[in-house]
Structures are given as structure tokens and as C-alpha cells.
Write a structure and sequence with these properties.
Length: 472
């Protein structure tokens, strides 16, 4: 004998739609009527949108109960293996993006990009069409709201059409998926763009870097010595070039090669670096700072007795602190920057500060030259491999009023080979010998031998932009 409630459910199931999306609407209406007054339901509903495991499990269980009385007999969208997961992710979750976010088959894909209803994913370093599309622009908007709900500070609308934030990565506990979002009027109305970037690489030491082909095996010991020189260093390159991974290698090896316990202040807008999880025995302080807080946080970090300050992504506000600290004489500043021209980095850093606080562009440039000593340039090859293409000393020739990059290591694309130059400026040699005499001689010994075997022609690359500012 059926109870009254079961009879109602049975009657409801007879009228159930075989259209998947209509079925979801009917299910949603049912739960609204049944649980709208349940405070726990409302609380878990918000958590489910952010991917909370307890909340997801709760809704999976409710959907299973609903399906026992109201079985779905239609055709599932291709993105889903079961009615329960399909109904949940189209109702509360990530929609067709769900497999990339949660399924192990995509665990080594570093990126997913949604442009309107079209989806692309990064496979072995190259973007290609994703197996599924968003079903509608409304579903894109729902996904946008789902992702934004994971961070109460995140906002993307007409008043703020660009946003960056993070969500926990279900496939890699302790790591994050970084999200960049553009909405109208930054994009056309039907082209909301959501880019998701996943950390897929464990920490690499220099031997691992050589194994991936990013540096030659013959330079491993040179790079190990380089990490002990305490020079202010920028790792530069375009998006996807491996600069963040290499910067972590550089800073991580600085810590690992030290005989004492060092202090590292790690300044990020969003948690991204793996160093706090993989390097032990050192005082690693991970700090999150918004743009407007960066200068204050940077100055405060100097009171934490750091041996290294690492800003994982240099944009505008980060440069203000980097140049200020470097011009005050602080060593061992590290950061990454989106460019491929080592010789122009002081100019670009000065422009970043000038655009924020005004003043004298020439004065900011002089300060930048006091702050930036070495630049590592990374590039992504057409094959998807990441490659160090330059290691450059930044030189200010005061007599000629000229700025140039003195390349110590240079990769040639046409010959796929490296050449080397061991002639450093006298001022850099003096600083390196004072910073770490043993590491300096080891570095120079390896560089001299490689330069003798594979000499570089014309190692100096002049920064015409900087020269215009200095002579203007």
C-alpha cells in the first residue's frame, strides 16, 4: 500500500519529461517545494556550488532518491556517464566542464578555456577542441556564477568585467585551479570567456629541468651555482613558457643548496607555488596580497628576516616594491614577468611604476637598473617543450649612457644549439665574489669552459627604449 506522499511521487513520475533539461527543471521545482524552508538545505546548496565534498555528497544522495521514484528514461548528454552526475553538474555543478575539472583523464591538462559556448583544452602543450560544448549561453552564465561563488571577494559583471581568483583542484589536493574571467563589456555579449589553469607539474630540480629539455645537461652544475649567487633575478617569458616552474626551481634550489635554514617570503595574489609543500627545513612564509596591498606587504616582509623574497607574478604594483627594495640594496629578490626581451625589462619595470605613482621615468629607470641584475628568458616551442633561451646580465654603462643585456647563455632556434659568454661586468663580478665566493668561482669555471667550447658572437643586446629615456 502506498503512502499519500508516494502516490504523489508516482503520479509525478508518470508525467516526467524524457528531455534531460526539462527533467532538471522539474527536479529543481520539486526540491524547491520540498526543502525551501530547510536551513541546512540552503546552506549546503551554497556549498555545493563551490564544490564542497559534503554538500556534493548530500545532493548526489538526494538525486539518487529522486531517481528511484522518478527514473530518467531519456538520453544523457555525452559529457556524463550516469544520470546522477549529469543531473548534479547541470543543476549545481560545472556543467560540461565537469570532466576536465574532476576526472583523472584530464589530470595532466594544464588549461581549459570557454569562449561563449565553445570549449578548448590544453593537450600536451597545445589547445584543441574539448569533447563537449556548453549547451547554451544561460549555462555559461550559470557556470560563471558557480565558479564565482567559491570566492566571496570575486565579482564579474558590467561594473567589473575582468576577474581572477582560484578554486581548489579536486584532482590535486593542496593545489588550485586558477581562473581568469572576462564578461561583457570586456568581451562581446555572447562571448563570456573563462580560462582555467591547472598546476600539473611537481617541483622540478635542475636535473629534472634538463630531463625535460629546458636546459642542457652540461649546464646543470652551472645553474646550481647560479642559484647560490644571491642576485636579484627575473624569470621572463610568455604565458605557458614554463617561467613559473623554472622560477620555482631557481628559488627552490637556492634553499636546497644552503647549509643554513633560510627565510623565504613568498608573495602571491593567489596561492600557486608548490615550494611550501616540497621544501623542508626552511622558514617559508606564503603571503597573499591584493594589488593595493603589495607595497605595504613587501615592506612588512622585510621585518620577517627574509633571505629571499619571491613574487611569483610581476605585473604593475609588484614592480614598485621590487625596484624600491632593490635600489635600497636588498639582494635575493626573485620574480616572474611576461616578456621575452631581457634588455627591456628595466624599462618595462620603470614604466610599470611610473604608470602607478608618476614622478620621473628616468629616475624610476635608474632605480630599476640598481634592482635587476639577471634575467632568465623562457620560451615555449612549437612542439610544446619549454626552453631557456637566454641568461642575461643587465648592464648599465654610465660612460656611454647605455643599457644592454649581456647574454651569458643563448639558444639559437635555427641550429637548436646553445652558445656561451663568460665576460661579466666588473661590478657584477665584484658583487658575486662578495655574495658567495665559492659559488661564484664554480659558476665562472663552468661558464668559462662552455664559452671556450661554444663561444657566443655579439653577446650584447642594447635596449633602445632605455637609451631614449636616459638621453631624453
Amino acid at each position: 500500500m502506498f503512502s499519500l506522499n508516494e502516490l504523489i511521487h508516482k503520479q509525478h513520475s508518470l508525467n516526467q519529461s524524457s528531455n534531460f533539461y526539462q527533467f532538471i527543471n522539474e527536479m529543481d521545482e520539486y526540491f524547491i517545494n520540498e526543502k525551501s524552508k530547510d536551513n541546512r538545505y540552503l546552506e549546503l546548496n551554497q556549498k555545493a556550488l563551490a564544490g564542497d565534498p559534503e554538500a556534493v555528497s548530500y545532493f548526489y544522495h538526494d538525486i539518487e532518491k529522486y531517481l528511484r521514484i522518478n527514473p530518467f528514461r531519456g538520453k544523457l548528454p555525452a559529457a556524463y556517464d550516469s544520470a546522477v552526475e549529469g543531473l548534479f553538474h547541470e543543476w549545481k555543478g560545472f556543467g560540461p566542464a565537469y570532466p576536465w575539472i574532476t576526472k583523472k583523464q584530464f589530470s595532466n591538462s594544464s588549461g581549459l578555456q570557454i569562449i561563449g559556448k565553445n570549449i578548448f583544452f590544453n593537450h600536451k602543450g597545445q589547445f584543441q577542441p574539448y569533447p563537449h560544448r556548453m549547451t547554451s549561453l544561460d549555462r555559461v552564465e550559470q557556470l560563471k556564477r558557480t565558479l564565482l561563488s567559491s570566492d566571496e571577494r570575486a565579482k564579474a559583471d558590467k561594473s567589473k568585467p575582468a576577474e581572477e581568483f582560484k578554486i581548489n583542484d579536486p584532482l590535486w589536493p593542496g593545489r588550485f585551479i586558477r581562473i581568469a574571467m572576462w564578461v561583457y563589456p570586456r568581451t562581446w555579449e555572447d562571448f563570456t570567456t573563462i580560462s582555467l589553469r591547472r598546476q600539473i607539474v611537481e617541483y622540478l630540480d635542475y636535473e629534472d629541468q634538463a630531463g625535460t629539455g629546458s636546459i642542457p645537461t652540461e649546464t646543470i652544475n652551472l645553474w646550481i651555482a647560479f642559484s647560490q649567487l644571491k642576485l636579484n633575478t627575473i624569470v621572463a617569458g610568455p604565458v605557458g613558457s614554463g617561467k613559473s616552474t623554472f622560477a620555482n626551481t631557481y628559488v627552490g634550489e637556492t634553499l636546497k643548496q644552503s647549509r643554513s635554514s633560510l627565510g623565504l617570503v613568498l608573495i602571491e595574489k593567489h596561492p600557486e607555488s608548490l615550494l611550501p609543500y616540497v621544501i623542508e627545513g626552511h622558514r617559508i612564509i606564503p603571503v597573499m596580497a591584493l594589488h593595493e596591498d603589495l607595497m605595504t606587504v613587501g615592506i612588512e616582509s622585510l621585518r620577517m628576516d627574509p633571505d629571499i623574497i619571491f613574487m611569483t607574478e610581476m605585473r604593475h604594483y609588484e614592480w614598485e616594491f621590487y625596484i624600491w627594495a632593490g635600489s635600497k640594496g636588498y639582494d635575493n629578490l626573485a620574480g616572474t614577468f611576461h616578456t621575452v626581451d631581457a634588455e627591456d625589462i628595466p624599462y618595462q619595470g620603470a614604466i610599470a611604476v611610473y604608470s602607478q605613482i608618476g614622478g620621473s621615468l628616468k629616475g624610476h629607470l635608474i632605480s630599476a637598473l640598481q634592482s635587476i641584475k639577471m634575467v632568465v628568458v623562457m620560451q615555449k616551442l612549437e612542439t610544446g617543450e619549454k626552453r631557456v633561451t637566454r641568461l642575461s646580465e643587465i648592464v648599465f654603462d654610465e660612460f656611454e649612457n647605455n643599457i644592454y643585456a649581456n647574454d651569458l647563455i643563448r639558444w639559437d632556434k635555427e641550429t637548436d644549439s646553445y652558445t656561451y659568454n663568460c665576460e661579466l661586468s666588473d661590478s657584477t663580478k665584484k658583487q658575486l665574489e662578495e655574495n658567495n665566493r665559492a659559488a661564484f668561482y664554480t659558476f665562472m669555471d663552468h661558464l668559462t669552459k662552455l664559452s671556450s667550447k661554444y663561444p657566443m658572437k655579439d653577446p650584447h643586446v642594447i635596449s633602445r627604449r632605455s637609451r631614449m629615456v636616459l638621453n631624453g
